[in-house]
Amino acid sequence: MLGTAVACLSAQVQTLSLVTDDVYPRSTPDGRGFEDLILKEAFRRVGISIRTSQLPSERALINVNQGIDDGLYVKIAGVEAGYPNLVRVPEPVCDYEFAAFGRDPSLKITGYPSLASYSIAFIRGWKNPEAATAGMKSVTRVKDDQALFEMLLDGRVDLIVYESLQGRLWIRNHGLTGIHQIGPPLATSEMFLYLNARHRDLVPRLAAALRDMKADGTWSQIIHSVVGNP
After folding, report:
1. pLDDT score, position 2
2. CATH code of residue 12
């Protein structure tokens, strides 16, 4: 009888598939990035386990919108306007500092409008730079992080738009030389977890779990355990 009860309890534990295009230190293939760990803990607090994997940004959006995967992280507010089957968990998972990276540290970059004179690239599916650079003459969208930095290294663009922390660690961990963050961040945005609409009942519970994690110190502890002092 005990074995049957345990088996029934195990069968009731729901596992959801979450996807992200983020890389170290935010996400890793083995799920040890700080966003991975924050969300594993948030879902654990509402009685659900998650399986995380990495996909290109636009593919992740499409997969979750079509219900192939259950959720994606992290994206700016408003993404649901273009993907009607996405629902946003309103408590931010973290912040992003969008920044310009280039080879010439003497360039004067003071915000998105200052990019208009240069050829720029960013990752397809990144909605903040997509909106901010609309109408600029020389804008290229690429599949993923690797392609983005290759464009810059090959001299095919003057600047790339990327996340500040990820960019600095990408440069360090890949042994890249001659590439720098140029100027202060272009924008800072709260970043969110999105779920396929069939899981909308989880939204208030997950928002509460994230708030509780920030209040009890778990959120900060997870980030510090991964990032330390980059």
Report:
1. 46
2. 3.40.190.10
Q: Does 175 lie in the same domain as 68?
A: no
In contact, 175 and 116? CB cutoff 8 Å = no
Q: How far apart are CA 130 and CA 230, in angstroms?
A: 28
State the residue range of the domain holding 58.
2-94+190-227
Maximal C-alpha separation, the chain = 73
pLDDT at 228: 81
End-to-end CA distance of the chain: 52
Tell me the average confidence (pLDDT) per consecutive run of 10 residues in the chain, 230 residues long.
Answer: 46 86 96 98 98 97 98 97 97 98 96 97 97 97 97 97 97 96 97 98 99 98 87
Q: What are phi and psi of 59, to 5 degrees?
A: -65, -40
The first and second tokens of residue 125, run together, are 């599916």
What would the two tokens of residue 149 be? 């930095």
Question: How many structural domains compose the chain?
Answer: 2
Same domain, 115 and 84: no
Exposure pattern of 112-151 as b/e (b: 16+ CB <10 Å)?
bebbeebbbbbbbbbbbbeebbeeeeebebbebbeebbeb
| Whether residues 209 and 197 fall in one domain | yes
Residue 162, strand partner residues: 99
How far is residue 83's CA from residue 114's CA, in Å, rounded to a whole number? 30
